Amino acid sequence: MRNILLLHCHDLGRFLGSYGVGTVSTPNLDALASESALFEKAFATAPHCSPARASLFTGTYPQSNGVLGLTHDPFDWDLKEPRQHIAHRLKSVGYQTELIGVHHESRVLPDDVVADRLGFDRARTGGARDVVVSRATDALQRMAAGGRPFYLQVGFTEPHRVPSQHDRPGVMGFLADGVIPDTSRGHSIPSHLLDDAGSREEIAELQGAVKHMDEGVGRILAELDVLGLQDSTLVLFTTDHGLALPRAKCTLYDAGLEVALMIRHPLNRAWAGKRVSEIVSHVDVLPTLLDVSGLTVPADLPGTSLRAAVERGEPIREHCFSQLTFHTYYDPKRSVRTSTHKLIVNFSNAPRAMDPTQSWVHRSLPVDLGGPTIATSPALELYDLSTDPAELDNVAGEPTNADTLRELSVALFAWMQETDDPLLKPEPTHAARHSIALKNLQDASLTPSRK
């Protein structure tokens, strides 16, 4: 058994220098990436906080673990079985366990209740960057003297959007306390957004918030070194889902699901500086942590240890599955992704891209807005990611893609059955679109192959 330091943050996607974003200043995470196995195509199971984190920390999909929406008031979604949490699994075999900062994977309750339910010896939730850093370094000092391996889970709120006195009326940006916009290296505008003054203003703030978070990560890793724990501690860094920008967070496009994921494994040189190009899912993280710690990986987990991908270059999965059910409103979607294609099934007539900005004055806009408002979603969306990585051209209706549509529909429908997806059980109150989308998925999965 070895120590585990799991660092995570909000709404980052892969907006780091180590993922090719040259205009953001992230020297600490870039240095960590150079010493780690970095997963170039890692994806969340959901494009928003609580369901994504519930999957990350339990190794199960939202349909299975019960967190189909946000866990704070007034939404109050919760894990069906809190003992599935990695902290509970590790504490049961002798680990010291502590939670610092963001907790959003189970119902938001007092810290002592959260700790008891999830398997932490202690929980101190919330806090901006400096509070989180102070508490994390304190925890490292105490756990280093504890005489047993530890699991320390540290979550940064940044770069989540927050209300600020610096915001213009009608805007909620990224200017948390201590965050200043950063354009020292220019701007990196995602390809699915218009490159205009509004997007540049948003990206400048985002770059400042990511830089601010990166500095916090650096201070925690420096304390790990001071305590002499760097050679006995596995360090994992990730985020919950994609960037909090239009057509990203709260959508099943790659921009909403892509996540940074890097693991520094100090006792195995095969992991140092390795870049893994195969697709992987957040549900693979928990099996990996158990596996590299010499612990038994439960057979009923849907994920797979990443060791084979890192140490032997073997692909571990053909499909990544993701879902959205509730965020601020009911907008059920399901998706399946391969290395080359993505299928999204939309079970409601909600707007095509839920707004993640919590602003009524929008500064950045999708390139495919298509008019004064974003239209409702089609029942099926199919994208050829090899030629259309921004997922702007829906080819679901093209006859030449019939076999691809069928293959992905079969895989998605089977996954929904395996997870006992509630969308397979239409309720009388579901909109007509729900039945139409479900029928389209079933019909597509039954279409004879043209091969």
Keywords:
451 residues; globular; Alkaline Phosphatase, subunit A; 12 helices; 2 domains; four-stranded antiparallel β-sheet; 13 strands; Arylsulfatase, C-terminal domain; alpha/beta
Q: What does this protein look like?
A:
The chain has 451 residues and is of the alpha/beta class. It folds into 2 domains: 3-312, Alkaline Phosphatase, subunit A (3-Layer(aba) Sandwich); 320-446, Arylsulfatase, C-terminal domain. Helix content is 29%, strand content 17%. It contains 12 helices and 13 strands. The strands form 2 sheets. Strands 1, 2, 3, 4, 5, 6, 7, 8 and 9 form a 9-stranded mixed beta sheet that branches. It has a 4-stranded antiparallel beta sheet with strand order 10-11-12-13. A hairpin with a 3-residue loop joins strand 11 and strand 12 (341-346). Helix 6 (129-144) packs parallel to helix 7 and helix 11 packs across helix 12 (432-446). The longest helix is centred in the middle third of the chain and has 30 residues, at 197-226. It is globular, with a radius of gyration of 21 Å. The model has no long low-confidence stretch (mean pLDDT 94).
- CATH fold descriptor of the largest domain: Alkaline Phosphatase, subunit A
Helix content: 25-40%
* Class by SSE composition: alpha/beta
What are the segments in which pLDDT stays under 50 over at least 5 consecutive residues? none
Measured by DSSP, the beta-strand proportion falls in 15-25%
| Count of separate structural domains | 2
User: Which CATH architecture of the largest domain would you pick?
Assistant: 3-Layer(aba) Sandwich
**What is the CATH H-level superfamily of the largest domain?**
Alkaline Phosphatase, subunit A
